[in-house]
Specification:
CATH topology of chain B: Butyryl-CoA Dehydrogenase, subunit A, domain 3
Strand order of the largest sheet of chain A: 1-2-3-4-5-6-7-8
Number of strands of chain A: 8
Largest sheet of chain B: none
Number of helices of chain A: 4
Strand content of chain B: under 5%
Number of domains of chain A: 2
Shape of chain A: rod-shaped
Radius of gyration of chain B: 17 Å
Structural class of chain B: mainly alpha
Strand content of chain A: 15-25%
Distance between the termini of chain A: 115 Å
Oligomer: heterodimer
Structural class of chain A: alpha+beta
Chain lengths: 192, 162
C-alpha cells in the first residue's frame, strides 16, 4: 500500500471515533457565547468608566500644565535693545508720588544681565535692596519686579515699551503696584 | 427562537462533527478537539450577523477551528520541548497506531496540511487560504510531511499532490 493510501485510510479510521453530542455541544457554545458577550460588555463599561475617571482626575491637572506652559515667560531673551541708563524728572508729578515723597529726578540702568539699578530722588529715603531688581524683555513687552521695596506683595508688572531715538516710553499692560506704574509711565525716559 | 437562531442551529448540527473530526486529527486529543471546536463555534455565534451573510459560513468556522488547532499544536510542542516531556495524547478507537504516531512527529502546519489534503480532500488553494500561506508553501509542507512520514514508516514516497 502506498504512503498516500495508508495515510488516507489511517485518517479516515481515526476520525471515526469522533462522534460528538451535538445538542450538548450546542448548549455549551450558546452558554459560552453569552458569557463572552457579557464579559466584553463589562470590560468595555469598566474601560469607559476608567477613562472618564482619569479625565476627571487628570484633566484639570493637564489643563493647569498646559496653561502654565503658556504663561511661563520664555527663556530670558536678549534685553540688549533696552540696555542703557535712562533718567526721568518726576518733579512735577503729583498724586501718589508726591504723597510718598517720590517726586523728583529718577535714574534707571538696565543691564545686559537682566538686572536693574535705580536711584530715587535725593531725600526720598528709598534705596535699592538686594538681590537686585530684574527685568525680562519679550518682543515689545517688558516684565519686571522693579521697586520691590516699594511694591511689596504686588509681584511683577508688565509693560509694553517703545524706543524712539533716545526716548523710552512705557505703557502699563498689567501691574498691581500703583507707585511703580506712576514712576515708570508718568513721563518718557530719556537715555543718558 | 428567531430565524437567525434556527439557521445557526442547523449549521451547527451540520458542521460541528465534521469540523471536530478535522481538529481531532490535528491535535490527537478528543477533549481538546472538542474544546477547540467549541471555541471556533463561539466565535461564529458572536459574529453570526456578519458571517451568516457569507456564501459559506461553514468554511469560515472550519478555517477558524483549523487555525486554533495549529496554534494549539504549536504551543503543545513548545511546552513539551521546554518540559522535555514526550507524552503522546491518548487516541481511542480503531487507529493505525504507527501512522498516527508518525503524524504526531510533524509540525502543526504539516499536520494541518496533511489532514486538509488527505482527509478533507481540499484543493491546495483552499488549504492555502485556511493556513494563511501561499499554495507553494502548502506544497512544501506536504512534501516535507510525506518525506518525514515515509522515513518513519519505512514507506516509499509517491507524490500525489497535483
Amino acid at each position: 500500500m502506498s504512503l498516500d493510501r495508508r495515510l488516507r485510510d489511517a485518517l479516515q479510521r481515526s476520525s471515526s471515533v469522533v462522534d460528538p453530542d451535538v445538542g450538548r455541544n450546542l448548549a455549551i457554545v450558546r452558554r459560552r457565547t453569552r458569557r463572552a458577550v457579557i464579559r466584553q460588555r463589562v470590560t468595555t463599561t469598566l474601560l469607559a468608566a476608567a477613562m472618564v475617571a482619569a479625565a476627571v482626575v487628570l484633566g484639570p491637572r493637564l489643563l493647569d500644565i498646559i496653561r502654565s506652559q503658556h504663561e511661563t515667560p520664555p527663556a530670558r531673551p536678549s534685553p540688549s535693545a533696552l540696555v542703557g541708563s535712562y533718567h526721568a524728572d518726576l518733579t512735577g508729578a503729583g498724586g501718589p508720588l508726591a504723597t510718598a515723597r517720590l517726586a523728583g529726578p529718577w535714574t534707571l540702568t538696565l543691564n545686559g544681565d537682566g538686572s536693574i539699578l535705580w536711584n530715587a530722588p535725593p531725600g526720598s529715603g528709598v534705596t535699592e535692596g538686594l538681590p537686585r531688581d530684574t527685568y525680562q524683555v519679550t518682543g515689545t513687552q517688558l516684565v519686571t519686579n522693579l521697586f520691590r521695596s516699594l511694591c511689596r506683595g504686588s509681584g511683577v508688572g508688565s509693560y509694553s515699551w517703545t524706543r524712539s531715538g533716545g526716548t523710552l516710553t512705557l505703557v502699563t499692560v498689567r501691574d498691581g503696584c500703583q507707585l511703580r506704574r506712576a514712576i515708570l509711565t508718568s513721563v518718557p525716559w530719556r537715555a543718558r | 427562537m428567531d430565524d437567525a437562531g434556527l439557521e445557526f442551529d442547523w449549521l451547527f448540527a451540520d458542521e460541528f462533527p465534521a469540523v471536530m473530526r478535522a481538529v481531532y486529527l490535528i491535535v490527537h486529543d478528543l477533549d481538546r478537539a472538542e474544546d477547540i471546536t467549541q471555541d471556533a463555534f463561539v466565535q461564529l455565534l458572536r459574529h453570526w450577523k456578519k458571517v451568516s451573510r457569507y456564501d459559506r459560513p461553514g468554511a469560515w468556522v472550519r478555517r477558524v477551528a483549523i487555525r486554533l488547532a495549529v496554534d494549539a499544536v504549536r504551543r503543545e510542542r513548545v511546552r513539551a520541548l521546554l518540559e522535555r516531556k514526550v507524552e503522546p495524547p491518548h487516541m481511542r478507537g480503531p487507529v493505525d497506531v504507527d501512522v498516527m504516531r508518525a503524524v504526531r512527529q510533524l509540525t502543526g502546519m504539516q499536520r494541518a496540511a496533511v489532514v486538509l489534503f488527505y482527509f478533507e480532500d481540499l484543493p491546495l488553494s483552499e488549504i492555502a487560504n485556511i493556513l494563511r500561506c501561499s499554495g507553494a508553501t502548502v506544497r512544501v509542507h506536504l512534501h516535507r510531511a510525506r518525506k518525514r512520514l515515509a522515513g518513519i514508516l519505512g514507506e516509499e514516497v509517491i507524490e500525489d499532490v497535483p
